[in-house]
Amino acid sequence: MDCRDITFGFAYQRDAEQLARMSRDLIEAGLGWSYRAHRVADLIADPETVTLVARDGSRPVGFGIMKYGDERAHLVLLAVSPTHQRRGIARRTIAWLVESAKIAGMASVHVELRADNRPAYLLYRTLEFGETFRVNGYYRGEETAVKMARVLRGPAVR
Known about the structure:
It is a single chain. The chain is an alpha+beta fold. It has helices at residues 16-27, 37-45, 89-103, 118-126; strands at residues 7-10, 49-56, 59-68, 72-80, 108-114, 130-139, 143-151. Helix 1 packs across helix 2 (37-45). The longest helix has 15 residues, at 89-103. The chain is globular, with a radius of gyration of 15 Å.
């Protein structure tokens, strides 16, 4: 399976509602809904954040949001519609975002995920992310998070 028929590009403000619904249904399920359309729109507009969208035609079927700091990047959200999973979309999205973090001079990329999300854990491991630690009750005091990171370079010496 591949994603050759899928196009990738930056998000538009008009994508915010759809991406927020994907976050609610695919990432935040059972935890409430904190990444509503206005918050996603703010991330899309933020000059220190990249929102990459995978599209099937004009319809968003996946996305990743990466926020850049001075030395580290944080993969805030990543989701792929169930109808388009297992086609390499998440892998390609992460690879693009990691490459952009390298170009931006980031030392590392960080992500957190639910401890019971085995497919995501395995995906990140295959993409050279290592588990850094676990935080009990991270998600609304209810679920454990696994924090993972990928080192891109050593820290800058100042």
